[in-house]
């Protein structure tokens, strides 16, 4: 079970990476039910990216897939084309959302990051996800 203390560690690692690349970000962590545990908006991060970061985390948990992978499979003609219109428009198909797994490979939550390019969002999300210690 992902707890607030875990979310704080994940967010701290993501914030560190965002600082290293010089891009303020919004960082969200959700639990196994896709409920928000914690969110941080770094100084000067885009206000419009708050919901996007939360929804990237939701998407990753709801489908147990990174939003980057989902984006690759949701282009016209691909198997998930149109998925972004599901779940009351909460599904994000931009890089930056990653499921968090326990030591048995079970998804226990997700991180969502928004505020930079897709490549930057993914890099920062990966840094946060890598700080997650499997329980």
What do you see in this structure?
The chain has helices spanning 4-21, 49-63, 67-72, 118-130; strands spanning 26-31, 36-41, 97-101, 107-114. Helix 1 (4-21) packs across helix 4. A 4-stranded antiparallel beta sheet has the order 2-1-4-3. The protein contains 4 helices and 4 strands. A hairpin with a 4-residue loop joins strand 1 and strand 2. By secondary structure, it is of the alpha+beta class. It has a single domain, classed as Haem-degrading domain (Beta-Lactamase). The protein is globular. 39% of the residues lie in helices and 19% in strands.
- Runs in which pLDDT lies below 50 for 5 or more consecutive residues are none
Q: Helicity range of the residues?
A: 25-40%
Percentage of β-strand residues:
15-25%
Topology pattern, helix = H, strand = E: HEEHHEEH
Number of discrete helical segments: 4
What's the CATH class label? Alpha Beta
The overall average pLDDT, rounded, is 94
Supply the number of structural domains: 1
- End-to-end gap: 8 Å
Class from secondary-structure proportions: alpha+beta
The assigned CATH architecture is 2-Layer Sandwich
- CA radius of gyration: 13 Å
CATH topology name, in short, is: Beta-Lactamase
Profile the largest sheet.
4 strands, antiparallel
Describe the strand arrangement of the main beta sheet, using strand numbers: 2-1-4-3
Which geometry do the CA atoms define?
globular
